């Protein structure tokens, strides 16, 4: 074994360069409008369509040390919050360039580390002023408005940055755009007034779905997915003119103005508004989330009766069922468990329909050879056969017969299995009018266990009367017209029982390659809402938070260090070092570099959302705002002011009617801040690394050109 | 057909230290170690080069164990350093760097190895006796009635690991937690001998550092579904516990070699299961409330136990076995044959707990010295770096102060210590020492030669003295006049400064000894004999 050691930052910091180049690949995923990417494997000529950071990293070759650290950081963010990975990836890139610039300017590494972490922490404290509390959003759930009834404007993707300063021509341009009729022409005309009831019967849903099938919708979605940047993007697909204006004028609207002297306070007490704000332009997915939450809420209030336990959105009880090849408009949300089974089950389902059946739940595989985890099979046991007569049935047959006997004995017609099921058994069960479904998600199993009283078992031998659940209904799921579903050659069934805490979201997409993306986007929206409800507060979104960070850092950089001397030196690990005294010298430089990272973030965001035709244009636009914020004396109240103007439409009465409908954009707090912290941590970790130690690598395994720069032990 | 091959002759090299290659590798190793030293030390990415995990670290324990060095001399060095680290968990880099420096410097002097080893030994005894003496200026007694000094020690250790990526707030929080965990392991009723309990580190990766916490008792991690199955837990005065280290999975993996022949119709699996169920019946009749198994419990046995309202938890892992047995007072049961009633133990209470996205069953003992330290960090790298626990008795203040002071002993030996002190500086600054206390000061490299030092310097390395006292400085590594470091009054001094940088006394002292002795050993080597077969 030979250890090789390589010094990685002699003149230029290789680690930081690698980080910024990796991060550059995810630039277009920042913001609400994500351009998809094709990733092509040159060896086997396979390609995948991706549009999220996490899928991008899955497909990239990240075997280098830095690449793995990056992947680790993104995975950790994704596993914990399921959101914020694009922000993380982008900031890693922006800040590694910033750190590299500091190195070029001769700033000592320790100073970069301490000032950057101080700067970010200061930002995190500062943005608390942009938090919006969420109050009792479920109190108003009975109201008539539903998510799908909202008229939405694309401009809301980035509202803060859209509204320019009070002076200047740009304002007029933007406002004209807002007011221009072109934005509203895509409304679907002639849609009947939506039923105010939240839970309509299936037939009504179908009626709606049919009317939504409109070529315009498809056209819009095409526009959205292409690199369409020239003008403001118009891609909202759920226009419904009939329902507008109902919700804005509610007396308990979230926006309150406390006279001229005090700043405006925001609060959010309306679920639909919150969802709109968190949808970040993906109204389709958020509409499904909204319906799922409402179903859960309804179920919870029925189950509880008069008990006033506060409702908690339980994201683990939402299940997605993907149907590729079905038009997008058939995506919907239903209570119970919807799944796909093979056509051969058709007659069986017909017979099971309209009667309660009994169910057992099997945790492992339902095969003869399956043994529970941790069971080691002895390999050296031979079975001695005494006579030839018992060879008639194979052991598989014996086992299958036994399983059937148990099912018959306990009168079980439905078996849900978490793992695989023996094909032979499935066939035999179909003949004896019993449905066996394999690969069932564990939370689905849990939901059925709770609702039906069944107890999950590992082996069929464990089944006794206590393990069997009652009152399950199996039926064809006919929300999608049969001609559509026949085309994809499966049948969809719904399994449910009274009070089951399980909601299935059926996701459809005519393009199979987009299925994964659709599912990812749904979960992103669902988790955003989940985190927001859990934290009971959100940030003002649309770049407001990042803008505040940017202007705050610039102000910090401009301040002299003297009055905060003791505060800052605390960031250096050892206060006695000479670095502490030279901190004042380098501090503005480092803070400005960090601020530049935010600047790049904002301009890329604007460029991606097609607010600006070039990043340069976006950059000058941000500069202008920054100047205004600085002049106003308090950046946070400047931002709040701009926001309230946007929402109340006070500054131009003629367009107030339209502007009122621009909802606020919200961001979730902790996942966002944690993404920032993770990004900076990663950059600083790589910055502080000076050598790479490769263990277990022989001389021979390094190519001659690679050997350069390596030292061997 | 067997084939015999002549043995290769052993390879013998004389004077291994004179070889150019050994010198070069020693130099590389020293470079790696010195650049990692101290709170602003540079990090190293250690990985296999074939993918797999990347360890970013500046800790001696991680570095030394991951360096697969080839040369026997380097092996001696790394092994002896690893031994020191495994005993004291601290001062590993100090020891290793000092050792490397000693070897290098002595080679330069050209003295014979015997003279050098004797001299080193003598100097070492001078140093240790000075450090142990009352007049030693760098010793602080720990006052166990106030946490301040202990907290400083823990904080110093946590601070010296830059790869943890902690902010000051997080660092303070974590230091306090580690100290609390340490204090929880001290038994309330001490008899003649103090036996410390242990704290179990429960990983919670991906969470915020500030969410870390310390709980008395043991946390057993389990999935939400598993936890739902054992809820609600019936209330009782005490829970009778049976702890199994044998597998209850119902397999028969110990059939030995050869083949076993079984008559058709006989099921070994069923026979073992029947045995397990009779064990279950015994547990139920003994009124056991909680069955914990290191390995797997057969689902049927689990089902049987839960039908009789006995909580069964399996797959707790070997690491938890000793603490579990301590907390509950059980004897781990190693066979499924029969159980003696004396092996049962008990816990005061059981409750479900949720931290982050993980679910736990919390075992609350009557009185025990076991606690669980829930350690959170944003990423794996930083989490792996967070592993420090100490047993401080007497504390040595540090950050170069000691080294600079020690070096006043004698010349040959001292430049080695000097370099250790000097290697705390990674950004090209200048290191100074004062002529009154002999402490460590740091300054900007490009400082003008005539300068008002008190204005430029603020505090010494350990934070005990500030520059406003009337002191004189000289550059480290320059010629200087010998002086006797002044002692101070510990209480006044420690009282005035609340942010000292401290080191564990025993660890540092042992580090010094190990370094000198290892260096002596290596210097004394005259032949390396390698068996090439």
UniProtKB/TrEMBL annotation, chain A:
GO biological processes: chaperone-mediated protein complex assembly; eating behavior; fat cell differentiation; intraciliary transport; negative regulation of fat cell differentiation; negative regulation of stem cell differentiation; photoreceptor cell maintenance; stem cell differentiation
Single GO MF annotation: ATP binding
Domain of life: Eukaryota
Gene Ontology cellular component annotations, sorted alphabetically: chaperonin-containing T-complex; cilium
UniProt-recorded name of the protein: Bardet-Biedl syndrome 12
Organism: Canis lupus dingo (dingo)
TrEMBL record, chain B:
GO BP: any one term: protein folding
Entries under Gene3D superfamilies matching the protein: GroEL (3.50.7.10), GroEL-like equatorial domain (1.10.560.10), TCP-1-like chaperonin intermediate domain (3.30.260.10)
UniProt subcellular location: Cytoplasm, Cytoskeleton, Microtubule organizing center, Centrosome; Cytoplasm, Cytosol; Nucleus
Protein origin, superkingdom: Eukaryota
UniProt key word Transport: no
Predominant place of localization: cytoplasm
GO MF assignments: ATP binding; unfolded protein binding
Pfam families: Cpn60_TCP1
Coiled-coil regions listed: none
Entry annotated with the keyword NAD: no
Gene Ontology cellular component annotations, sorted alphabetically: centrosome; chaperonin-containing T-complex; kinociliary basal body; nucleus
Keywords carried by this UniProt record: ATP-binding, Chaperone, Cytoplasm, Cytoskeleton, Nucleotide-binding, Nucleus
PANTHER family: MOLECULAR CHAPERONE MKKS, SYNDROMES PUTATIVE CHAPERONIN-RELATED
Role, per record: Probable molecular chaperone that assists the folding of proteins upon ATP hydrolysis. Plays a role in the assembly of BBSome, a complex involved in ciliogenesis regulating transports vesicles to the cilia. May play a role in protein processing in limb, cardiac and reproductive system development. May play a role in cytokinesis.
Subunit structure, as described in the record: Component of a complex composed at least of MKKS, BBS10, BBS12, TCP1, CCT2, CCT3, CCT4, CCT5 and CCT8. Interacts with STUB1. Interacts with BBS2 (via coiled coil domain). Interacts with CCDC28B. Interacts with BBS12. Interacts with SMARCC1, a component of the SWI/SNF complexes; the interaction takes place predominantly in the cytoplasm and may modulate SMARCC1 location. Interacts with DLEC1.
Family: Belongs to the TCP-1 chaperonin family.
Record's protein name: Molecular chaperone MKKS
Source organism (scientific name): Canis lupus dingo
């Amino acid at each position: 074994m030979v250890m090789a050691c390589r010094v990685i930052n002699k003149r230029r910091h290789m680690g930081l360069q690698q980080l910024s180049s990796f991060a550059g690949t995810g630039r277009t995923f920042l913001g609400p409008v994500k351009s998809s990417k094709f990733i092509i494997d040159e060896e086997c000529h396979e390609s995948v369509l991706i549009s999220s950071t996490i899928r991008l990293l899955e497909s990239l070759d990240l075997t280098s040390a830095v690449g793995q650290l990056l992947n680790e950081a993104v995975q950790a963010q994704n596993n914990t919050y399921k959101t914020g990975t694009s922000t993380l990836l982008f900031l890693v890139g922006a800040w590694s360039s910033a750190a590299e610039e500091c190195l070029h300017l001769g700033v000592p590494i320790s100073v970069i580390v301490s000032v950057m972490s101080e700067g970010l922490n200061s930002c995190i404290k500062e943005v608390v002023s942009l938090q919006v509390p969420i109050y009792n959003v479920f109190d108003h759930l009975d109201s008539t408005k539903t998510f799908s009834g909202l008229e939405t404007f694309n401009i809301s993707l980035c509202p803060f940055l859209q509204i320019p300063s009070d002076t200047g021509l740009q304002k007029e341009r933007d406002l004209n755009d807002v007011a221009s009729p072109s934005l509203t022409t895509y409304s679907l005309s002639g849609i009947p007034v939506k039923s105010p009831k939240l839970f309509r019967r299936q037939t009504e849903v179908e009626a709606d779905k049919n009317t939504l099938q409109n070529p315009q919708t498809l056209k819009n979605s095409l526009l959205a997915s292409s690199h369409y940047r020239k003008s403001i993007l118009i891609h909202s697909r759920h226009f419904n003119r009939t329902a507008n204006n109902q919700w804005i004028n509610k007396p308990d609207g979230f926006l309150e103005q406390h006279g001229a002297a005090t700043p405006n306070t925001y609060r959010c007490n309306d679920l639909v508004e919150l969802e709109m704000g968190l949808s970040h332009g993906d109204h389709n997915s958020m509409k499904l989330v909204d319906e799922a939450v409402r179903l859960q809420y309804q179920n919870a209030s029925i189950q509880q009766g008069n008990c006033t336990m506060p409702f908690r959105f339980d994201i683990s009880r939402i299940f997605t069922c993907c149907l590729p090849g079905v038009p997008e408009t058939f995506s919907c949300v239903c209570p119970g468990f919807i799944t796909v089974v093979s056509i051969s089950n058709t007659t069986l389902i017909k017979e099971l329909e309209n009667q309660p059946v009994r169910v057992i739940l099997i945790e492992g595989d339902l095969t003869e050879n399956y043994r529970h985890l941790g069971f080691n099979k002895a390999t050296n046991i031979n079975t001695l056969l005494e006579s030839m007569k018992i060879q008639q049935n194979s052991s598989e047959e014996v086992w299958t017969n036994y399983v059937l006997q148990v099912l018959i004995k306990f009168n079980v017609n439905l078996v849900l299995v978490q793992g695989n099921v023996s094909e032979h058994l499935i066939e035999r069960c179909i003949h004896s009018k019993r449905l066996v479904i394999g690969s069932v998600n564990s939370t689905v199993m849990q939901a059925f266990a709770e609702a039906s009283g069944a107890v999950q078992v590992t082996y069929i031998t464990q089944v006794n009367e206590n393990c069997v659940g009652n009152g399950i209904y199996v039926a064809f799921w006919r929300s999608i017209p049969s001609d559509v579903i026949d085309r994809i050659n499966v049948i969809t069934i719904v399994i449910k029982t009274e009070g089951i805490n399980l909601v299935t979201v059926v996701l459809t997409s005519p393009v199979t390659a987009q299925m994964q993306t659709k599912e990812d986007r749904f979960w992103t929206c669902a988790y955003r809402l989940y985190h927001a409800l859990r934290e009971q507060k959100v940030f003002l979104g649309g770049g407001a938070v990042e803008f505040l960070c940017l202007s705050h850092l610039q102000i910090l950089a401009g301040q002299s260090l003297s009055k905060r001397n003791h505060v800052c030196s605390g960031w250096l690990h050892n206060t006695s070092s000479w670095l502490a005294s030279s901190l004042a010298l380098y501090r503005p430089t480092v803070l400005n570099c960090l601020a530049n990272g935010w600047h790049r973030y904002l301009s890329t965001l604007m460029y991606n959302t097609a607010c600006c035709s070039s990043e340069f244009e976006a950059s000058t636009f941000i500069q202008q705002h920054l100047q205004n914020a600085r002049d106003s004396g308090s950046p946070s109240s400047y931002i709040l002011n701009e926001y309230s103007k946007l929402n109340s439409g006070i500054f131009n009465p003629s367009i107030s009617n339209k502007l009122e409908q621009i909802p606020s954009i919200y961001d979730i707090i902790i996942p966002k801040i944690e993404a920032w912290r993770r990004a900076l941590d990663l950059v600083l970790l790589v910055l502080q690394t000076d050598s790479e130690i490769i263990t277990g690598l022989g001389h021979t395994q390094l190519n001659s050109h690679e050997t350069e720069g390596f030292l061997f032990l | 057909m067997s084939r015999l091959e002549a043995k290769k002759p052993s390879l013998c090299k004389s004077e291994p230290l004179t070889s150019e290659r050994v010198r070069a590798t020693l130099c590389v190793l020293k470079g790696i170690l010195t650049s990692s030293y101290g709170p602003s030390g540079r990090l190293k990415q250690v990985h296999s080069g074939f993918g797999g995990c990347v360890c970013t670290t500046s800790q001696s324990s991680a570095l030394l164990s991951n360096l697969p060095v080839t040369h026997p001399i380097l092996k001696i060095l790394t092994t002896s350093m690893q031994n020191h680290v495994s005993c004291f968990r601290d001062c590993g880099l100090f020891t290793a760097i000092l050792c490397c420096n000693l070897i290098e410097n002595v080679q330069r002097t050209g003295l014979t190895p015997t003279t050098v080893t004797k001299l080193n030994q003598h100097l070492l005894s001078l140093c240790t006796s000075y450090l142990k003496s009352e007049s030693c200026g760098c010793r602080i007694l720990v006052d166990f009635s106030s946490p301040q000094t202990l907290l400083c020690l823990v904080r110093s250790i946590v601070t010296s690991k830059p790869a943890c990526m902690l902010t000051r707030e997080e660092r303070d929080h974590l230091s306090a937690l580690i100290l609390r965990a340490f204090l929880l392991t001290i038994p309330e009723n001490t008899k003649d001998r103090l036996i410390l309990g242990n704290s179990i580190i429960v990983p919670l990766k991906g969470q915020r550092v500030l969410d870390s916490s310390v709980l008395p008792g043991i946390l057993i991690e389990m999935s939400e579904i598993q936890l739902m199955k054992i809820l609600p837990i019936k209330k009782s005065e005490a829970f009778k516990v049976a702890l199994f280290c044998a597998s209850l999975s119902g397999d028969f993996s110990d059939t030995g070699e050869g083949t076993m022949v079984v008559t058709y119709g006989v099921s070994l699996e069923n026979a073992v299961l029947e045995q397990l169920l009779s064990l279950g019946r015994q547990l139920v009749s003994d009124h056991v409330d909680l069955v914990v198994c290191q390995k797997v419990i057969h689902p049927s046995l689990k089902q049987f136990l839960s039908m009789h309202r006995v909580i069964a938890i399996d797959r707790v892992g070997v690491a938890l076995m000793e603490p579990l047995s301590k907390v509950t007072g059980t004897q781990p049961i190693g066979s499924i044959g029969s159980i003696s009633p004396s092996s049962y133990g008990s816990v005061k209470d059981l409750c479900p707990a949720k931290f982050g996205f993980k679910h736990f069953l919390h075992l609350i003992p009557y009185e025990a010295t076991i606690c669980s330290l829930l350690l959170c960090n944003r990423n794996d790298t930083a989490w792996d770096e967070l592993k420090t626990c100490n047993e401080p008795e007497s504390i040595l203040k540090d950050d170069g102060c000691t080294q600079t002071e020690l070096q006043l002993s004698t010349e040959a030996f001292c430049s080695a210590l000097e370099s250790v002190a000097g290697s705390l500086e990674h950004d090209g600054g200048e290191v100074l020492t004062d002529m009154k206390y002999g402490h460590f000061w740091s300054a900007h490299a490009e400082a003008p030669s005539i300068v008002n030092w008190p204005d430029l310097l603020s505090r010494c390395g350990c934070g005990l003295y500030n520059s406003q006292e009337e002191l004189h400085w000289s550059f480290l590594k320059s010629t200087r006049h010998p002086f006797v470091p002044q002692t101070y009054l510990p209480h006044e001094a420690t009282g005035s400064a609340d942010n000292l940088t401290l080191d564990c006394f025993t660890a540092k002292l042992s580090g010094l000894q190990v370094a000198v002795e290892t260096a002596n050993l290596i210097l004394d080597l005259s032949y390396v004999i390698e068996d090439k077969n």
